[in-house]
Amino acid sequence: MGLLVFVRNLLLALCLFLVLGFLYYSAWKLHLLQWEDSSKYGDSKYDRLGFLLKLDSKLPAELATKYANFSEGACKPGYASAVMTAIFPRFSKPAPMFLDDSFRKWARIREFVPPFGIKGQGIRLCLCPLSLSCRRCIIVGNGGVLANKSLGSRIDDYDIVVRLNSAPVKGFEKDVGSKTTLRITYPEGAMQRPEQYERDSLFVLAGFKWQDFKWLKYIVYKERVSASDGFWKSVATRVPKEPPEIRILNPYFIQEAAFTLIGLPFNNGLMGRGNIPTLGSVAVTMALHGCDEVAVAGFGYDMSTPNAPLHYYETVRMAAIKESWTHNIQREKEFLQKLVKARVITDLTSGI
């Protein structure tokens, strides 16, 4: 009997020792993982979003070696995403420019309503991407900083020229070029006169609300567009493009720009105050995934010069800009400045 009690006590002590040992090991392991995570994304090296704190224009040694032999003007395959990953290790590529059934993050955009996803829209498209072996892309903003810069020919040299909303080309070719590959917009921002649209370009919808997808259906099927369908201003009733010339921008870029890259409030995945990225930042995010080299022109608002032109195509002054309910311009500026400083993107007009 005494032997059985001894063995029982021994086994209980052994079990207790094993449990304590497991708890100690788990606590140590958790502490180690937390230390590794903080050393990777913590205050010592990375900011709260995961960007390197110390950014400079000098490329990492391995990238400098990789691209050293490329002549000036030659397209550098994978350059933008490689540098982006170097300063922001959380960046993942690829993601298709347009909605695509094969996109591995499809589930993420199905879980969110517009603008961060397509939940409730019944959309399942498979549209072909742009076919180029190496893509040099430029996103042309609408800023007044473009005026009188004579960058037209330089902009037209890029393989893919992306324009935003209704920014005109005709009459401004000297400063903004004449080439348009993609024009990204939403209903309220779209050109309202059919003759304004470029003939050889893709019309790309950025859907920020469910009415935007409904509007596109009207446009594609040439149905009557009602002004009372929830738009905050008048919208185009006709777009002179056939279905093969129309795309829907992957909503993942709106989601990634807002929450991952800029750090805007999540708000349970719903549109709210200050958590919608501007179309410019969304286009840059798209280009980081879909282009080998990325440049911008016409970006940036200099509020210290109230008499400067707000847009290159009109006389409205900078002083007219008001605080935005949906956008956080300062946060976006900080995001874009990181990309310029680290040479992820090139700013032709130095407005950022």
From TrEMBL:
- Coiled-coil annotation reads none
Q: Which reaction does it catalyse?
A: a beta-D-galactosyl-(1->4)-N-acetyl-beta-D-glucosaminyl derivative + CMP-N-acetyl-beta-neuraminate = an N-acetyl-alpha-neuraminyl-(2->3)-beta-D-galactosyl-(1->4)-N-acetyl-beta-D-glucosaminyl derivative + CMP + H(+)
Listed GO MF terms: N-acetyllactosaminide alpha-2,3-sialyltransferase activity
Return the broad EC class.
Answer: transferase
The record's subcellular location field reads:
Golgi apparatus, Golgi stack membrane
Keyword field: Disulfide bond, Glycoprotein, Glycosyltransferase, Golgi apparatus, Membrane, Signal-anchor, Transferase, Transmembrane, Transmembrane helix
Transmembrane stretches, start-end: 6-25
Pfam families according to UniProt:
Glyco_transf_29 (PF00777)
Q: What membrane topology is annotated for this entry?
A: Single-pass type II membrane protein
The reply to whether Nucleotide-binding figures as a keyword in the UniProt entry is: no
Quote the EC number: 2.4.3.6
Q: What InterPro entries does the record tag this protein with?
A: Glyco_trans_29 (IPR001675), Glycosyltransferase_29 (IPR051142), GT29-like_sf (IPR038578), Sialyl_trans (IPR012163)
GO CC term (a single one): Golgi cisterna membrane
The function of this protein is: Catalyzes the formation of the NeuAc-alpha-2,3-Gal-beta-1,4-GlcNAc-, NeuAc-alpha-2,3-Gal-beta-1,3-GlcNAc- and NeuAc-alpha-2,3-Gal-beta-1,3-GalNAc- sequences found in terminal carbohydrate groups of glycoproteins and glycolipids. The highest activity is toward Gal-beta-1,3-GlcNAc and the lowest toward Gal-beta-1,3-GalNAc.
Instruction: Write down what this protein is called.
Output: CMP-N-acetylneuraminate-beta-1,4-galactoside alpha-2,3-sialyltransferase
